[in-house]
Amino acid sequence: MLVLFSIINSQDNVNKSLQGAFGAVTIDGKLWNQIALRPIIPIGKISVALDIVFYIDQDGNIHDDEWDFSNGEKSKNSIIDKVYYIRYGKKWDPFYFQIGALDHISIGYGILVNGYSNTMLYPQVRKVGMEARFQAFGLKFYGFTNDFKENFGLTGVRVSGPVPGGITVGGSIALDRNQYL
Description:
Layout (H helix, E strand, L loop, with lengths): L1 H9 L6 E11 L2 E14 L2 E5 L1 E5 L15 H10 L1 E6 L7 E5 L4 E3 L5 E4 L12 E8 L2 E7 L8 E10 L3 E10 L5
Antiparallel strand pairs: 1-2, 2-3, 2-4, 3-5, 5-6, 6-9, 7-8, 9-10, 10-11, 11-12
């Protein structure tokens, strides 16, 4: 792993990165040792962050739910779970979106939502959220939702634009359909 880390760091492209995690997690009430790698692969303006994780119990058995390719449905879910997020652009670009894990969301200058992450219950609950920013009709639009798979629970939208006098005015709203979920 040290060699892999050295090779990635020696590349000229500064957008490439490799994150890793070692430790213990609880899955379905059982303690597992975790070895995780999260390489971020840039392809032009698109970046794909993978989630390569192995869970090992005290007997050396590997938790195989993440690596189950026994049928079509399980294969599809195993492959989808290997993608941590897909992102186009950077947060400050005029057009930006990220689908998958959302690690730090703020809206309303932190008054409505501040530092939200849809990965708080990870790895037991894997949410597929979306964050997007774009410009149209002279206005700036920003929005996010925490999970497409289950409930669209926490969602936020902001619209802003210039008004006479050289200032920008905007409005934001954040909704949580089930604040106890």
